[in-house]
Amino acid sequence: MANADCILIQGSNMAECHPVGFQWVMEAKLRGAKVIHVDPRFTRTSAVADLHVPVRAGSDIAFLGGLINYVLQGGHEFHEYVVAYTNASVIIEGDFQDTEDLDGLFSGYDPETKTYDPASWQYEGRAAPAAAGQREHGAARGEQHGSGGAGIGDDGEVHTDPSLQHPKCVWQILKRHFARYTPEMVEETCGISPAQFREVAEALVSNSNPERTSAIVYSVGWTHHTVGVQYIRTASILQLLLGNIGRPGGGIMALRGHASIQGSTDIPTLYDLLPGYLPMPHGGLDTDLATYLDNNGTDAGFWAHMDAYTVSLLKAWWGDAATAANDYGFEWLPKITGDHSTYQSVLGMISGDVKGYFVVGENPASGTANGRLQRAGLANLEWLVVRDFTDIETSAFWYDSPEIESGELKPEDIGTEVFWMPAAAHTEKDGSFTNTQRLLQWHHKAVEPEGDTRSDLWFYFHLGRIIKERLAAGTDDRDEPIRHLTWDYPTIGAHGDPSAEAVLAEINGWTLGDDPDPTHTDHKPVSGYTALKADGSTASGCWIYAGVYADGVNQAARRRPGSEQTWVAPDWGWAWPLNRRMLYNRASARPDGTPWSERKKYVWWDEEAGKWTGHDVPDFKATMRPDHRPGPDDEAEDKLRGDAPFVMQADGLGWLFAPNGLTDGPLPAHYEPHESPVPNPFYSQQSNPTRQVFDLQLNRSNPPVNDGYPYVFTTYRLTEHHTAGAMSRNLAYLSELQPEFFCEVSPELAAERHLTHGDWATIITARSAIEARVMITDRVRPLRLGERTVHQIGLPYHWGWRGLSKGDSANDLMVGVLDSNVHIPEAKVASCDIRPGRRPRGPELRRMVDDHYQASISAPARPDAPQGQVR
Amino acid sequence: MTIIDRSSTGTDVTLAGVGTPAYDREQRVGFFTDTSVCIGCKACEVACKEWNDVPADGLEFLGRSYDNTGRLSADTWRHVAFVEQPVATPETQAVSGMRWLMSSDVCKHCTSAACLEVCPTGALFRTEFETVVVQQDICNGCGYCVSACPFGVIDQRKGDGRVWKCTLCYDRLRGGQTPACAQACPTQSIQFGPLEQLRERAATRVDALHQQGVADARLYGEDPADGVGGFGAFFLLLDRPEVYGLPPDPVSTTRDLPGMWRMAGAAALGMLGLAAGSLLEGGRRA
Amino acid sequence: MPRAERRMVPDVTPMSYYGQPVLKAPTWKWPIAGYLFTGGLAAGTSLVGASARIRRDRRLASAASAATLCALGASSAFLIEDLGRPSRFHHMLRVVKVTSPMSVGTWIFSLFSALAGASAAAEVGERAGVPERVARPAAAVAQVGSALVAPALATYTAVLVSDTAVPAWHDARRQLPWLFAGSATASGGAMGVVLSAALAPCGGGAFAAGPRRMAVAGALVEVGADEAMHRRLRSINTGDVAKPSVDSAYATGQPRRLARAARACTVGGAAAVALAGRRDRPRTRLIAGAGALSVLSGAALQRFAIFHAGRASAADPVYTVGPQRLRLVPPAGQP
User: What's the gap between Cα B265 and its chain centre?
Assistant: First the structure.
C-alpha cells in the first residue's frame, strides 16, 4: 500500500481500527499519494485523509457504481489490461436479462424460494457447472470459492469479441447496467454532491494507468450488509477496469476485524469450509471423494489440483488409516446438509434442536447483531462452554443480562449448564497470527499462563485426547473418525501444552514415502503446495500453508529487518501461498511479459532464463511463456493461456461479470438496506431479494420508509476498545480512554430531537431500546438526498453490562438479517428513532419498545414507501 | 555506545525508516511529535502507562471529542488532545468542512527546566541524556516544581504525595531502547532520537508541509533561543499552541530569578533599616 | 442557531483547550499562606526582640523571643504539614541550591531558627543556673544575630512565590519583596505593641514608641507596595474583555474579599496604632493593642489574598495565554 498513488478507504475506519497497518497509508501519503475516505462519519481516518466524503450508510454500491459508470462513459479504463486480463470480451447467454430489463431483478429469480437460478448468466457455449443451482437455498455457497474461483461449466468454446462491440458481451452488458449510476443518482442515493463525486473519480482515474496505481481499502463497513458480497464485487469491477489488480500499490485491501481472523478462515472456523478453502462436503451431493472433487473442482488453473489438496488433508488427519481403498477416509468427514451458520444455529437453540454450544473468542450476548435473539438461544441450551479471559456477558447471561434486569428471565428458570474456562492470552502461548495480507508471523510464549488459564491449543488437544481415550475401546462405526484421528503432538512445558510448532509442521505437510513408521520422525516437510500429490504419498493440514515449514524451519518466525532485505521483505514471516506477497502478480506485466512501466515493475518474464522473475515470487507457473496457448492435451494450469494472470480462476481472467459463484446476481446492483428510511431510487425492488430474513417476534424488523424509525444508524469500533469489549472493558488503561457508551449525532439532529451534549439519549428499534451519552459533533452531518434530508446516528458497539466500563449494547438494536452468499448479518446499517433521556428500567422497557413498534406499523403508510413489498 | 533499532523498512522514504536512530550516552535525546501524522490512537498513553506502571486515573466521560483523559497529570504522562474545528474556504470565509486535530502532549524536558531548578531537594535532576527526571526516593512532595512548570506538566499524585511526570523512559534509555510511547506510535508521529537530528528533520518536514500548502504548520519548542532554551520534546503543530492547551510563549520563571534575589535583598535591607530606624530611635532605655 | 449557543463538542476557544488551565493548580494549600504570614511575623518580631535586647528591655526582649519561637513553631508545622511526604522534610537539607528559593529559604529558616532557638535557650539556661555572664551575652548575640537574618526570612518568601509560572505571583516579582518586607515589618511592630500592652507598665515616656513606629512604617510600605503591585498587574494585558489584565485575578471572589479586608485591617489598625495616645494609659494600650491586632490580621489576610489570587490566575488560561500571545504578536498582527 505504501506504493499506491491514490488510496480510497471506504467501508473502513482504518486509522482507528487498524492503526498499525495504517502506517503504510501514512507512508504512501508521505510519498505523495492522495488519500480519500468515504464514510458516514468524519473519523480519525478522515482527519488525516486528503478528502473526506460523507456517505449514507448502505449506499456504497450506488457510489462505486457511479465511479464504474464514470470510467465506462469517459473511456477511462485501462484498456489493454481490461481486454487481456478480464472477461470483458466474453459473450453471455442470449437469455440473460439485467436489472435494467426487470426493474431490479436479474433473470432466473424464483419468488417462491427467493433464489436465483444462474443458468441464464452463463458464458455462451458453456452450460452451468453441475453443482451450481442444485444447492438448497440455505446452503448457498459463496464462501467456498474463497481460494478457487467458481467453475465455468463444461468444456466448450468460450465466445469472445475482443472489439467489445457485441451487444451480449460483458463489456456492453456492464455499460448498460451501470448507465443509470449517474452523479445525480449518486447524490440522490448517497448524499454525495456531484462535485465531490467528480473529485474522487478524477483522483482514481488519473492515478490508474501503466505508471500509477490506486488501492482500495475496505473492512466490515462493506461486508456487514445484506448486499455485502456485492459491495466487494463492485470494487473488484472498478479495480479491474482501472487495471489495479496484481500490481504494486493496487489491489483491494480487505482489513480483517481481529488479529488472525484471516488465519481462522484459512484454517477455518466456518461451517462450510475445510482448511485451505476446500468446500465442506455436502451430505446429499458429495457422496464419495470422486463426486466431491468433480462437483467442486475445476479442470483448469491451480484449482484443478483440488484432489491433491483434499487427499493430503485427509492423510494429515487420519494418517495410515486413510488409504486409497477407503477413499482416504472421505466418509469420516462431517457433511453439511444446509445452512448451519450462526443465525441458523441460534434459531436451532431457540427451537431446541441445538443442545450445546462452544463460544471461544466471541461474545455473542453483546457482540452479535440482535443480542436479545442470541441470549434467547443461550437460555435454551443444555450446556454452554465459554472460553475467555473473564466471565463475559455471554457466560454470565444467566444471571446478568438485560432480560434478567427487565424480569423477563430469571436465573432459576434457565436450564443451561455453563462451563466457563479461563483462557490464556497470546503472550502466554506460542503460535502464529495470519494477518490480512496472508502473512504468518510467529509469536513466542513470553510467560506461562497463570492459575487455571490455558491456551486454546491445550484445551482442544487434551479434550480430544480424553475423548479418544474414552472411545478407544468402542466399536461403534460413528466413532471411527475419532478413533483413527492422528492425535500425537508432543507436549511441552509445565502444563503439557502441545507443541505449536508440531502443529505447524503438520499444517505444512510432509512426504510420507514408503516409510511406515508411525512416529513420522523422518517425514520430509514439503516445500510448497505444488509438491502435494493425490496418491496418498503426501499429507498437509492446509494446502495453502504448505511451505511455511519448508526445510523443517519455522518460516513464519523469520524476522530479518526490512533494512537488510528488499522492499518486498520476503524474509519477514511467511505469506501463503509459497511466500507470495502479492497475488495474481502476473498482471503487473503486460501480456507479453514486460513490465507495464519501470515505476510499477514487479514480476516479469525473463526470456534468457526462460522463466518469470521479479521482486516477488511470481504467482504463475514459473516457466510458462507469456505466449503459451493451451493445447488439447494440457491440464490444470497448463490449460490456461500464458497471458491469463488469474490462475485460480477456471479461465484465468478477472471477472467483471460473474456467471457463477454468487447467489444474488452476476453484477452488483444498489439495493436499500433491509431497514431503510429511503425508497430505492434505482429500482422498484427495494432490498436485496435473496437476503435471509428470519421472521420471528424476537427478530422483528422495522418497516422500511416509516416515520416511526426515521433515522439511519451505523455501528463501529473505536481504537480504544476491542470488538464487544471482552478484551478491553476489563482493562483500566483502555476503559479510561473511552469510559462510556455514547452516540454521535449532528447538531441538526440534536436540535430536532432536543438532545443535549453529555446527557443521555434513548435509541429505539423494533428489537430493543438502549441508552447512550450524547456526543453532538460536526463530525456527523445530515445528508441531502435531493429533496430529502437523512440524519445518521453513530453507535460504537463495544459496550455490554459487565467489566470496568459498562453500557448498553448497540447490537441489541440490530436485526438478524443476512446476506445470502455468506450469511453475514447487516450490522452496519439499520433504522431507528432517538429521543432525549434515559431508557426505562424493568418491564417498562419492553412495553415502550412494543408500543413504539405497534404505533409505527399501524400508522398510515408514507406515500413513498415501497408498495406491497415484503421482500 | 551506539544502539541501532531493528525497526525500519529499508525503502527510500519511509515513516518507519525515520524511526529510532542511533544515539549514545553523550548526546541529548528527545522527542519530535509531528501532530500532522497523529491518528489519535492513544497507543502512546497506554504504552507509557504500561511500561512505567502509571496508575489509571478514572473513568470519566468528558465529552471533549474523543479526549476522556483531559490533560497531562501525575497519572498521565502522554496525553492526546482532540480538537474539532470548522474549516472555512479562504476566499469566502464560509464553513466548508472541518478538521480534527490530534496531538500527543508530553513533558517538554526543557533546556532551562524551571521544575528542576526550583526543586529544593535535588529530586529532579538532569540525566546523562539531558532529560529531566524525578528521583522518587528523594522527592518529598513540596510541590514547588508544580507551580514552576510553565506547561502544567508535572503534578503531585493523590495519595502518594510525590510528584510524577514523563521520565522519557530513563530506564529504557539506559538499556539502549526507544521510549515506550515512541515505540508504540504506529505512524511515527512521535519520533525519538538525538535532538539535533530531530530538529533537522522537523525543519525539513515543516518545509515540506508548507510546500504542500499546509500553511498552518509550525514548529513549537524547537528554538534554543526561546524562553525555556528550547524543548527536549518539541512539536509540529497545525494551529496555535494554545488551541492544544499549550502556552504560546513559555518562559522559565528562573530566568528572572537573579533580579528577584536582588529585589529581595534590597527589600531586606530596607526592612532592616526601617526596623532599626523605628526601634532604635531614642537610644538605649535608661 | 449560532454555534456558541449550542452545547456540543465545544469549539476550542482561541485562548485554551476546552477552557482548561494551562498551568497546574499549585499544590500548596492554606498552610503555605499561613506560613507566609507566620514567617514574616517571626522575622518582624525578632527585630523587635533584638532592639529590646539592645535597649536592655529584657522583658520585651524575652517576650519577643518567645513570640518569635511560637511563630517559628507554627511556621514549621505549616511547612511540614503541606509536604506530600512530611516524613521526608529533612530531604530539604540534602542540597544548597541558589536556583531554588525554597532551598535558600530552608537554610535561611534553619539559620534563623537556630539563632532564635539559641537565644531562647540561653535565657532558659540562665534561669536554670547558667552563669549570667555566659548566658546573657549569648542570648543577646543570638537574638541580634537572628534579627540580622530576619529580613532575609521575611523577603525570601516573596521570591519563593514569584519564582513560579503563576501569573499573579510571577508578574508581581518586583513588588512582592517590598510588600512582604513591609508586611513583616508591620507584623513585627504590631506584635511588639501587643506584647508591650500585655506586659506590666514600666513607667515613663510614651507607650511602645518603637514598635508603634515600626508597625505604622511597615504598614505604609505594605500598602504602598500593594498599590504598586496592582498597578503593575493592571499593566499586563490579557486581551480578554472580561478579564483585561492579570490584576483581574484579584477582581472577583475570594481574592477580592481577602484583599479588601486586608487593606481595611491594615490601614485601620495602623491608624489606631499611630493615633493612640502618646501616654501610656490603659485606654491607650487598649486602642493600640486592638490596632496592632488589626494590623496583624491585615498582614495575614494580605498573604491569603495573594495566595488565592495566585491560584485563581493559574486556574484560568486567560492569564497564562493572553499576555504570552500579546507578547508574541501585537494585537493588530496575525497569529
Answer: 33
Sequence-distant (≥ 6) Cβ neighbours of residue B246 within 8 angstroms: B105, B151, B220, B235, B237, C22
Q: Are A710 and A856 in contact (CB under 8 A)?
A: no
Measured between its terminal Cα atoms, the distance across chain A in Å is: 40
**Residues B268, B274, B279, CA angle at the centre, nearest 5°?**
125
Helix axes C101-127, C30-54, angle to 10 degrees: 50
Grid cell of A783 as nine digits: 445528508
Tens digit of each residue's pLDDT (9 = 90 or more) over A860-871: 888 888 865 544
Rounded Cα distance, A546 and A542, in Å: 7
CA distances A118 to A87, A125, C236, Å, are 17, 14, 81
What is the dotted CATH code of the domain comprising C28-163?
1.20.1630.10
- Interface contact flag, A27 B15, Cβ < 8 Å: yes
C-beta of residue A648 within 8 angstroms of C-beta of residue A149: yes
Q: What mean pLDDT do residues A765-770 have? A: 97
Cell 427478530 found at: A699
Question: With a CB-CB cutoff of 8 Å, which residues 5-64 of chain C face chain A?
Answer: 6-9
| ipTM for the assembly | 0.92
Report chain A residues whose CB lies below 8 A from the CB of C3.
747
CATH class of the structural domain A6-124+159-254: alpha beta
Instruction: For B215-240, give one letter per residue: b (16+ CB within 10 A) or e.
Output: eebbbbbbeeebbbebbbbbbbbbbb
Interface of C with A in 251-290 (CB under 8 A): none
Domain boundaries, chain B: 25-250, 256-281
CB B44 within 8 A of CB B185: yes
Kindly state the cell numbers that stand for B2.
551506539
Closest Cα to residue A10, out of A227, A216, A257, A225? A216
DSSP element (H, E) containing A44 = helix A44-48
Please identify among residues 23-52 of chain C the ones whose CB lies closer than 8 Å to any CB of chain B.
23-24, 26-28, 43-44, 47-48, 51-52
Dihedral sign (CA A677, A680, A685, A688): negative
pLDDT in tens, C5-39: 445 665 444 678 999 999 999 999 999 999 999 99
Instruction: Please measure the distance between the N-terminal and C-terminal CA atoms of chain C and give it in whole angstroms.
Output: 28
Q: Which helix (H) or strand (E) holds B237?
A: strand B233-237
Question: Do B40 and A719 lie within an 8 Å CB cutoff?
Answer: yes
- Output the CATH code of domain B25-250: 3.30.70.20
Residues of chain A contacting B14 with CB distance shorter than 8 Å: 2, 27, 30
Q: Give the C-alpha separation, A609 to A617, whole Å.
A: 15
Residues A365 and A371 sit within 8 Å (Cβ to Cβ): yes
> Which residues in chain A have Cβ-Cβ distances shorter than 8 Å to C4?
none
Give yes or no for a contact between A723 and A258, defined as CB atoms under 8 angstroms apart.
yes
Where chain B has pLDDT below 70, the residues are 1-22, 25, 282-286
**Domain extents for chain C?**
28-163, 164-324
CATH 2.60.120.1440, domain A692-858, yes or no: no
Nearest alpha-carbon partner for A673 in A788, A824, A852, A835: A824
Q: What is the biggest distance separating any 2 CA atoms in chain C, rounded to whole angstroms? A: 88
Our measurement of the distance from residue A463's CA atom to the centroid of its chain's CA atoms, rounded to an integer in Å, reads 30
Cell readout for B53 is: 506502571
Residue listed under C-alpha cell 455471554? A394
Q: Which residues of C touch A751 (CB under 8 A)?
A: 1, 6
- pLDDT, mean of residues A605-610: 96
Nearest to A804 by CA among C98, B59, C309, C22: B59
Peptide linkage before A577 cis (omega within 30 of 0)? yes
Instruction: Count CA atoms within 13 Å of residue A438 on its CB side.
Output: 19
Measured between CA atoms, the residue of chain B closest to residue A781 is B97
A30/B63 touch (CB, cutoff 8 Å), yes or no: no
